[in-house]
Amino acid sequence: MPIQDPRRSNRPYGLARPCSSSWNWDARWSLPHGGGYDRGVGRVFAVPVAVLATLTPFHASTRPLSPHVKTQLKARGFWHKGCPVALSELRLLTVNYRDRHGHLRTGRLVVNQRAAAPLSVAFRRLFRLHFPIRHMTFADFYGPQSGRPRDGDVTASFECRQAVPSPCTGGKGTGTWSMHAYGLAVDVNPRENPYVGCGQSRDPKTRPYFDRSSHRPLMVTPRAVGAFTSVGWGWGGSWAGDTRDYMHFSSNGH
Fold it and tell me: Domain extents for the chain?
């Protein structure tokens, strides 16, 4: 029960009384001491909203795929028999993130069980950097085609498919599994961080982002890259040769 000063109003002990400044309050109270009371003075400082925003806690959780999620992955072709990873080896990773307006959102990725812990750390770092992500919900990537974002700018991980050939060579497949097929890769904001080679891209809308010398919103930054390299993941933007995959992060760098 709050301690109250019998000589004052019924204001609870420690409750700040507004003064002329909106940034601090002057609160006076009395404390029991040796059978009497001593006058004490305390100050409580109000915390600006901007500071509170930086203190917003990051949350991450991991759980096995539910029967409903497994059904959706199979029904929409994201997993099928012959994939290099079993559904039992995949996990649903839930993290909070900031969208392009700075609003807090909850994102969900399907990842390899071995990737859940390092990716939790990487996304925690991105969160603390206030790095923006456009779309990252389960439905954005795995939901019905009609409900997915039209811009296709979805951050996602698992997809059972072959590695995509460099724009330098063209073609639809390489004959080898992508690291996404194992749930050991993440593509971040793909429109602003395109897969380019020999001055070309498979998506003409990404051309404004070929030039990486000046930063534009949603482009990965050196600090964002560091969030992944800090957990041992490699970045496609640092590949040798004429091909760069700026959206791509993976456990083995490929």
Answer: 1-46, 51-250
**Secondary structure of the chain in HEC code, one letter for each residue:** CCCCCCCCCCCCCCCCCCCCCCCEEEEEEEEEECCEEEEEEEEEECCCHHHHHHCCCCCEEEEECCHHHHHHHHHCCCCCCCCCCCHHHEEEEEEEEECCCCCEEEEEEEEECCCHHHHHHHHHHHHHCCCECCECCHHHHHCCHHHCCCCCCECECCCCCECCCCCCCCCCCCCCECHHHHCCEEECCCCCCCEEECCEECCHHHHHHCCCCCCCCCCCCHHHHHHHHCCCCEEHHHCCCCEEECCEEECCCC
Rounded CA-CA distance 13/16 in Å is 9
The percentage of the chain sitting over the pLDDT mark of 90, rounded to a whole number, equals 72
β-pair type (104-112, 200-201): unpaired
CB-based contacts of 28, cutoff 8 Å, min separation 6: 17, 39, 40, 41, 42
Site of tokens 């974002």: 149
Tokens of 124: 């925690």
pTM above threshold 0.85: no
167 or 180, higher pLDDT: 180
The residue with greater pLDDT, 21 or 128, is 128
48 vs 36, more confident: 48
Tokens 């080679």 correspond to 197
Q: Higher confidence at residue 199 or residue 222? A: 222
